[in-house]
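Lay summary. Proteins are chains of building blocks that fold into shapes, and those shapes determine what they do. In this project we predict the shape from the chain. Here is one chain we studied, written as its sequence of building blocks.
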Amino acid sequence: MLFVISGPSGAGKSTLCRRVLDNLEGLEFSVSHTTRKKRRGEVEGKDYYFVSQEEFKSLIKANRLAEWAVVHEHYYGTSKREIEKKGAEGDLLLDIDIQGAQQIKEKYKKAVFIFIMPPQFRDLKRRLKTRGQESSVSVQKRLEMARKEIRHYHQFDYVVINDELKKAAQELESILRATRCSLDSRKMEIVSILRSFSGS
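And here is the predicted shape, written in a compact code that computers can read:
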């Protein structure tokens, strides 16, 4: 199953994804490519694949990306190989921007889309400022983008309001666990069980 997590910058997507990945077995994280610089504490191949703009554009030209977008003047994208390889091993979690989520929705019809929403605009503003990883100009750009991105919530299957981290993480985990129990997700297991009932 493909789970797509999206929402405005600063809503807490990455933090929530880390919480869920620590608690759920059989769940892999899809590592995106980006042209932005590595932030403090980020690890190559774990948080992102950090590439040059030239390298990224070569991926686009070779049609090797399942989705990509320019966000805050940097390129972000998910390779098709990442989805195919890790998706074959189990459930896969994508942490991507709104534009990327829209592209994935066109290509992967059975994916589950979850929108992470901040409780208030002022909370998002405070989080971006206290994160200390952006200039004031960059923070302002992200806030202006967030005003537009927040209006796309209705395109998603679920909405998690990240007002309290523990509660939001539990809600996100519950969505993933419930989806794993859906009829469509359990078809193969059900067929096997039904066969066992058809014998003597």
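What the prediction tells us: The two ends are 35 Å apart (CA to CA).
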